[in-house]
Amino acid sequence: MKQKVLRIVGRVLAVLLITVVILAGTLYIMLFRCCNGPSETARNVFVTTLLETGKLKFLASWVCSNDTIQAIVDGNKMSEMDTTLDPGQIGGDDVGTVDIDAGRVFDKNGICIEKVSGAGFSGKMLIIKNPSQVKLGTSYNNGWGRYGLTLDEMVKKAGAVAGINGGIYVSTANEGGKPLGVVVQDGKILYNDPYALQGMWLIGMNSDPDINRLIIKDIKGMSDKQVADYIAQNGIRDAVVFQDEATDRNNHFVPLIINGEPRAISGFGSGANPRTVIGQRKDGAILMLVTDGRGANGHIGATAADLIAIMQRYEAHNAANLDGGSSTCMYYNDAWEMNSVTFYQQNSSWRLPTGFVVMPGTEE
Fold first, then answer.
1. End of a domain among 23, 46, 75?
2. Are residues 63 and 99 in the same domain?
3. 147-161 pLDDT, tens per residue?
4. pLDDT tens across 191-232, in order?
5. What span, in angstroms and rounded, lies between the C-alpha atoms of 316 and 314?
6. Are residues 341 and 274 both part of a single domain?
């Protein structure tokens, strides 16, 4: 009887082993054909996309040499953007001469939602007329707990009607309770560790009484005191950080458009992935964009070039990339407009420490 059981177990293990070998071989062949096939464009998108993932970077080196990978990276990257954002350009006297929202339908909260799409993605754009409605939602509760909130929980906690995911955070095991960098909510600094990562940019809203303006500020090299002083001196009311990684340009990037000037890119500028972007038009309206990817709806995702093109189409004067990938999500009017691309969170989002939310308002 014992020998019979061992034989059965052995056969099951053999079948499993053969299955794993076949799957691994099939994956390798697919990767090899993609990276060495006739389409150089497909190869470049595939490799740069892999390089943006947290755990699958190694796959690129399976089928491409280091020299080939470096050449692809060099041909599809973003130039440094050292233009300083000028908040005074938002809400100037020349705004309002043309109704750029003609034909758009806004709800009772002054929000319009539109579908966007491209060759490798689909997504949603929220247009919020009144920038003072855009706040920061957090999972903070007199301290940062181990677990963050899903975006719907965060929106409801804030009493908001819509939201998107926010800044960079520790996503290990989908606990999501610990932010990285800097977090400001209602003018109070809840987290301040600018040394945590290289290449950090502060992204958020100021409290200018004339018109609240989107701030996109390079804070690399600043101490926690310098960051706190900047926040106080510039009236930053709500903010997070994301990373523009100088040593891995195809991994994280932040500024897309500053003072109406698009960031210079080579090729696609980045790989293709789910993305979250926040921007502001010259009249003050806030733009919130999310796109799908990583196989969701059969799409690979949006590149940096895609994001710049979309934000320009919607007349963004300033725009910044936020955390993306599996964190990308949008919630509006008690429904998911974009949820997690991971299979085990498909009807929700990852747990998050921060997100930009939209408070109720009145249609103008």
1. 75
2. no
3. 999 999 999 999 999
4. 999 998 889 999 999 999 999 999 999 999 999 999 999 999
5. 6
6. yes
Kindly report the pTM of this predicted structure. Answer: 0.86
Q: How many domains is the chain partitioned into structurally?
A: 2
Specify the DSSP class assigned to residue 38: S
Claim to verify: residue 48 and residue 101 sit in the same structural domain: no
What pLDDT, on the 0 to 100 scale, is given for residue 31? Answer: 55
> Which regions of the chain does DSSP assign to beta strands (E)?
111-118, 121-128, 134-138, 162-165, 182-185, 188-192, 200-206, 214-218, 236-243, 255-258, 261-262, 275-281, 286-291, 316-321, 330-332, 335-338, 354-358
Residue 127 lies in a domain: yes
Shared domain for 116 and 242, answered yes or no, is yes
Question: Does 45 lie in the same domain as 191?
Answer: no
Closest C-alpha to 83, from 356, 284, 317, 323: 317
* HSE, side-chain direction, 13 A CA sphere, residue 354: 28
- The answer to whether the beta carbons of residues 348 and 155 sit under 8 Å apart is no
Domain of residue 31: give its range.
2-75
12 by DSSP, 3-state: which? helix
Residue labelled with tokens 């929106």: 155
* 364 falls within a domain: no
- Name 118's bridge partners: 121
